[in-house]
Here is the input.
Amino acid sequence: MNLLKKLGELKSIKPILSKINLLIIRDTFTDKSTIGTLYINGEKFCDTLENPYLNNQRNISCIPEGQYKVRLRLPRESATRNYLHLLVQDVPNRDWILFHRGNSAKDTSGCILVGNGRKQDIVENSRLAMDLVVKELIHLGGENINLIIKNK
Here is the structure.
């Protein structure tokens, strides 16, 4: 009986990686949006939607290509998001860049939206995609999250 209990405990232990790697490959660019694919530790995970690139202007542009630190952000830390989401840190000349729910560029002010499925200027099933991203990051340890953004 003790052996079965121990086995159950081992199955519930989260794997802890030294670093969680997020990669966004932006591949579709229009005057209304930038759409890409999010990979978590090398595995294709979901679609992303951002504003078009407009010289990194606050609230209307996606952030520049580059490497960033990311952390989970609790609902109590936000005046507008009542669910776990992600905060992208140390973006030059920008603050409060988040990964959050939304389906079109109208739903973002420079942040990164996630979805499962895409059409022109739209990502679909954003609520589900955001929940799955957060769940996966927590499963992987929830810390030491690195983001790389590249244009195709």
Summary: The mean pLDDT is 89. The CA atoms of residues 33 and 47 lie 13 Å apart.
